[in-house]
Specification:
The chain is of the alpha+beta class. 45% of the residues lie in helices and 12% in strands. Among the domains are: 148 residues, no CATH class; 98 residues, no CATH class; 104 residues, no CATH class. The strands form 5 sheets. A 4-stranded mixed sheet has the order 3-2-6-5. The chain has a 4-stranded antiparallel sheet with strand order 9-10-11-12, with helices on both faces. Helix 18 packs antiparallel against helix 19. The protein is elongated. The C terminus is likely disordered.
Length: 584
């Protein structure tokens, strides 16, 4: 099933539960309401519908007639709009405010001229008698400017009935939505024959896209068209299907919908297709807890995922962990990224929920490390920060987030840009922490099919791993000899040692002879212990150090360094050298 078809099905389920507007309507952010008397005069100052206090006020979400698709032209909405259209006032320069207001008035004069509904007559009287100067004359507040405004009759305002809620108005809007000459074709999404959507509604809520919305399907350049078709006729999608998929997607993209997560530059939405709403919600909650997102108690969710991981290690299937979750739940994950006024579908995944969850759990298992990171189950967003310069989200390598999540959920190899980005950060800031090493470990297992130890493995003879251990022993010896210095050998030589060991390690060994003598003066026991460790590691290395280490060996270098730096007394026991090899 395609992403659009899946979203159409999702809309049908949302509409059945009353969570999505009917065809021709949209949920929009409305800031103020203007109440009218039947003669078209205002009943009072605009009523603030926003919620919250002070500067944190947020517009109310209301179901209103679907907005007109705007590109660069002037296009008024029906019965509601921002103040530049409705009142002819704006907080900005207002270069075309008069044009926008004139278009709003002209459209409603044309559409309402034959209506005998008292609410619509009142609106028409208001529009024909309103002048932008009235805004200052009436002393209306500046904060209303550029907010979306709706209308109501004063007699119905206390019952929370707006003009667009009146039965006669809804009937008129239904006729308007179906009116006009429209091309007919078989819908590529539903397979039904019907009117084709010339322009698809805008998608809002994608991070980095235009605030007014962007298009997932559009044909605005001749190169995109064929056979003389224009706009939506190039890939016919019915008006009903276009409305359904955009409505569902906008619903999922809402900030508090519980269906979205921002992973790098990819705004990712997910939803479950189950026999009932409770089952779908349960699957979505588990997925949310696995990714470590949402407004949840992190400790409780981490413990929950930890229990699931322990069960997976024992070979128990997901169905045994969540007995109320049927095996045939279909799960959908869609990643979107902005591209000017359009959106790019970075990835779309549809699979059995048990399969997706198992793959993600396998990803967490591949990252298991001893000692573990402070976060038992770090979110993928937290992990991505480790690949960014200065750990700033805007510095996360482009496309990496979407590619990594897609590979995790589909069970395919990780993007090698993940490995190179991490190694670059290690060479730049020398911070070999548990999160970075855990990611490196997962890449080595997933991409190179290596058996990688969870904790220190004295029997591991991988050259990169041994050199990383050797570097850690040399650093520890220096610390005993000189204490905490401003620039340790890690600060000066880690990058070169991990990439070109032959040029660095002979120098480090000569320095170590000096450090060893000082260390013996301060702690003969520790100095002797490190000398023994150094000797054991050197015995396993070839006579000459390798001239270079490839990216894979640089990864094992970091792993060996981390393991040796965090060596425990029982490091030689079988328990501490447990390896993980997951090819799922």
């Amino acid at each position: 099933m395609s992403a659009l078809a899946s979203l159409v099905h999702a809309y049908d389920r949302l509409a059945e539960r009353g969570e999505a507007p009917a065809f021709g309507y949209s949920v929009e952010k409305i800031g103020f309401l203007i109440s009218l008397n039947e003669d078209g005069t205002v009943a009072g100052p605009p009523i603030d519908l926003r919620e919250g206090e002070g500067k944190k006020k947020t517009p109310r979400l209301m179901r209103v007639p679907q907005p007109t698709k705007r590109t660069s032209g002037v296009a008024p909405n029906f019965l509601w709009d921002k103040t530049s259209y409705v009142l002819g006032v704006t907080a900005g320069e207002g270069k075309r405010t008069s044009e926008e207001q004139a278009a709003f008035v002209a459209r409603h004069k044309e559409l309402l001229k034959d209506s005998d509904d008292e609410g619509l007559r009142a609106l028409l009287l208001f529009l024909t008698s309103w002048y932008p100067e009235n805004f200052t004359k009436f002393g209306w507040p500046e904060e209303i400017k550029d907010q979306n405004v709706v209308f109501s009759l004063e007699s119905e305002r206390r019952n929370n009935i707006c003009l667009h809620d009146r039965p006669a108005v809804r009937a008129l809007w239904a006729r308007l939505c179906s009116a006009g000459e429209k091309s007919q074709a078989t819908c590529l999404v539903t397979g039904e024959y019907g009117p084709v959507a010339r322009l698809h509604p805008a998608i809002k809520g994608v991070w980095g896209a235009q605030s007014s919305g962007a298009s997932l399907v559009s044909f605005n350049i001749d190169a995109f068209t064929s056979y003389g078709h224009e706009q939506g006729d190039n890939a016919p999608v019915s008006e009903a299907a276009a409305f359904a998929y955009t409505t569902a997607l906008n619903h999922f993209l809402e900030r508090d919908s519980g269906h979205r997560v921002q992973i790098g530059d990819a705004s990712t939405v997910f939803w479950a297709d189950a026999s009932d709403a409770a089952t779908a919600e349960e699957a979505e909650d588990i997925f949310t807890s696995l990714l470590g997102i949402g407004e949840v108690d992190e400790k409780v969710e981490a413990k929950k995922v930890g229990v699931i991981l322990d069960a997976i290690r024992q070979g128990k299937p997901i169905a045994d962990l969540e007995p109320d979750l049927p095996k045939d739940v279909r799960f959908h994950v869609l990643g979107l990224s902005p591209n000017a006024a359009r959106l790019s579908a970075r990835f779309y995944i549809e699979d059995d929920f048990g399969e997706i969850a198992t793959r993600y759990l396998a990803h967490l298992e591949r990252m298991r490390l001893d000692p573990p990171p402070r976060e038992d189950t770090p979110s993928i967003w937290r992990l991505l920060i480790e690949t960014a310069s200065q750990r700033k989200s805007e510095n996360i390598p482009p496309n990496l987030a979407g590619e990594w999540l897609r590979s995790i959920l589909t069970g395919t190899p990780y993007p090698l840009t993940l490995l190179s980005a991490l190694l670059m950060r290690l060479r730049a800031d020398h911070d070999v922490n548990a999160l970075r090493v855990a990611i490196l470990k997962s890449v080595l297992i997933r991409n190179f099919k290596m058996e990688v130890p969870v904790a220190l493995d004295p029997k591991n003879d991988d050259p990169g791993y041994l050199l990383g251990r050797l570097f850690a022993v040399l650093e520890k010896t220096q610390t005993v000899a000189q204490g905490n210095v401003n620039a340790s050998i890690k600060d000066r030589y880690y990058g070169a040692a991990s990439a070109t060991p032959r040029t660095v390690f002979p120098l480090l060994l000569r320095l170590n002879a000096h450090h060893q003598g000082k260390a013996e003066d301060k702690s003969r026991g520790l100095a002797g212990y490190f000398a023994q460790q150094l000797s054991e590691i050197m015995d396993k290395l070839p006579t000459e150090f390798p001239p270079t280490l490839n990216l894979r060996r640089q990864g094992t270098f970091a792993l060996g360094y981390f393991h040796q730096m965090n060596r425990r007394k029982n490091a030689d026991t079988n328990e501490s050298t447990t390896t993980v090899s997951t090819t799922e």
